[in-house]
Each structure stands twice: as C-alpha cells, then as structure tokens.
Specification:
With about 210 residues, this protein is α/β, with parallel strands linked by helices. The protein has a domain of about 140 residues: NADH:ubiquinone oxidoreductase Nqo5 subunit (Beta Polymerase, domain 2, 2-Layer Sandwich), CATH 3.30.460.80. Helices cover about 20% and strands about 20% of the residues. It is built from four helices and eight strands; from the N terminus they run βαββαββββαβα. Strands 1-2-3-6-5-4 form a six-stranded mixed β-sheet.
C-alpha cells in the first residue's frame, strides 16, 4: 500500500512585473512591553539680566530695590512696593516715559504672600522705547495710583480693580468700569470660574435665573 505523503500547499505565484513582493507580517510585540520614553522637551528661554545706561542710573538710585530683566526682547523692572511709585515718577520725569500704555495685573494664587503682580506698561516717544514696571503685592494690599502722573491710568486702574479686585491708593474715583457696581467677585482671578456669574445680581436686576 503506497505511503501517504503530507499535503503540500501550492506555492504563491511570483509577483507580476513591476509589482513589489508582499512584506512579511511583523512579529507580534510581547505583551506588556513598555513604550519608549518621550524625548525630553528642550529648555525654553529664561529671563536674563538687563543692562543699559538707564538701568545703571536707576541702580545707582535704588540699588537692590529694583531687579531689571529682559525676556525675549521685552525689558522690565521688578520693583519693591515701597519705592514703586517714586520709580514710576522718575520714569516719567527723568527718563521721559510720557505715555502709560496699560495698568494690569497677573494672579499667582500659589504665591501665598505675594499673590499679584501689578504691571505698568510705559512708552517713551522720545526714545521709541517700551518698558514694564512690576511690583508684587499680597491679596488685600493696595498699589499706588498713577492717575496723577498719566491721565490714561484713571480708567486703566478702574479696569484692574474691576477684574482683579486690586485697590489703587489715591485714585480719584475707584469703582467698577466693566461690570455693575453691585457685582460680586473679580473675573480675572484664578479662582473665578470661566462660566461663573453673580446669580443673585442677575436674578434681582434682570429677573431671570443665572445661565438662562
């Protein structure tokens, strides 16, 4: 009786002219194999010391009370709160920064003792130069009003008060400018929710439920 031979599968036909042979299937990866670690992000730019003739003059006057920095071409001076008003006056009178572009703030709730940066952005038409003056204050402390130095600061300080709750000592008429006088809360503080409203004010003054 003839011996049975194992069944042979027909060979695959050769690829047609110009056709690439089919790639062999990749072997499966072992279960639980760790993914390669993502490459570390490159370090970003950091503030650097700022040196100029103006900075030298200010250092001679205020010493360690100021910390001049530059970051991506933007020059700024961090000033101690005790000298910031005098510094701003010197910037206007002696350094010829005759236009106050903005008065604003930044909220850092993780900095418990100095939650807020108050920022004055100044411009000199004489020198075609822009500079920022910053000071750090804790929640509840006030910043000096510069409405008497630059008239533009009047409404800018009102907006900063409205959005952050920072009071400006010496302002002639500090009250809200964007929100109604009776509104509760300050929308640019970090703890103020993006959809948060003063439900009580809305109901009393508009006669609807908040979010309606």
């Amino acid at each position: 009786m003839p011996e049975d031979k194992p069944e042979q599968k027909p060979a695959s036909p050769p690829p047609a002219a110009g056709e690439k042979p089919a790639a062999a299937a990749a072997p499966p990866k072992p279960a639980g194999e760790a993914k390669p670690a993502a490459p570390a992000k490159p370090a970003g730019p950091t503030p650097q010391p700022w040196e100029s003739e103006m900075v030298t003059r200010l250092r001679n006057r205020y010493g360690s009370g100021i910390d001049p920095k530059t970051y991506l071409g933007q020059n700024y001076i961090i000033a101690d709160p005790s000298i910031v008003f005098e510094l701003l006056q010197i910037m206007r009178d002696d350094e010829l920064f005759d236009f106050c572009v903005d008065v604003t703030a930044v909220h850092y709730p993780q900095r418990k003792e100095q939650e807020f940066d108050v920022v004055w952005i100044l411009y000199s038409f004489e020198h075609n130069q822009r500079v920022r003056i910053k000071t750090m204050i804790k929640d509840g402390d006030s910043a000096p009003s510069v409405a008497g130095l630059w008239s533009t600061a009047n409404w800018l300080e009102r907006e900063c008060y409205d959005m952050f709750g920072i009071r400006f000592e010496g302002h002639p008429d500090l009250r809200r400018i964007l929100l109604p006088d009776g509104w509760k809360g300050h929308p640019l503080r970090k703890e103020y929710g993006i959809t948060q409203q003063d439900s009580e004010w809305v109901k009393i003054n508009l006669g609807i439920e908040s979010g309606q």
